[in-house]
Amino acid sequence: MSSGKSLQLTKYSQQRYNNAQSIDFDVAVKYGGALMAIAGADGELAEAEFQWYIDEQELLMVDSQEYIEALRQFDWKNANIEELLNGISYNFPLNFRRVMLYQAIKMSRADGSYHEKEKAAVAKAAEILGIERSIVVSLESLAEMEESTERLRLALFENEV
């Protein structure tokens, strides 16, 4: 049952993910919970992983505090990823399944390690979502390229004192 609450998205969300439609609060909690369970598949949801997701949500949502608090209370350790993923659907043109895997990969890598158990959880989520392995490999490669590009950008703009 839905609470009827929705999350409004920012202009940045439209630029980043080509979506400006609001998102059902309860579906968003399942989505975030699934990401936390995937990133925590190695037995720990590192602070850097959770912080990456919080930072992302603060950029994407107009007012994310209630949502972030709901995620802080979420029991990701005992979450059933398949049940969560089957409870997620969005009524907009964005391919949320691919975005979800992309965010799961980014979140899992945020602590500097993309653990084998996290990779396996991403692969399992892809299977549940009906996403072929080649797309998962492409999303992992995209995340790696973005990290490299970010390091390059920061190095180019670094002050030499």
**Estimated radius of gyration:** 16 Å
Proportion of strand residues: under 5%
Shape: globular
Which H/E pattern describes the elements? Answer: EHEHHHHHHH
Counting DSSP H or I runs of 4 or more residues, the number of helices is 8
Helix fraction bin = 55-70%
Number of strands: 2
Overall description:
The mean pLDDT is 93. This protein has helices at 11-17, 25-39, 47-60, 65-73, 81-86, 96-109, 116-129, 133-157, and strands at 6-7, 23-24. The chain is globular. By secondary structure, it is mostly helical. It has eight helices and two strands; from the N terminus they run βαβααααααα. The protein has a two-stranded antiparallel ribbon. The chain is 65% helix and 2% strand. Helix 2 packs across helix 6 (96-109), helix 6 runs antiparallel to helix 7 and helix 6 (96-109) packs across helix 8 (133-157).
Quick tags:
two-stranded antiparallel ribbon; 161 residues; mainly alpha; 8 helices
Question: In terms of topology, how is this protein built?
Answer:
Blueprint (H helix, E strand, L loop, with lengths): L5 E2 L3 H7 L5 E2 H15 L7 H14 L4 H9 L7 H6 L9 H14 L6 H14 L3 H25 L4
Helix pairs in contact: 2-6, 3-6, 6-7, 6-8
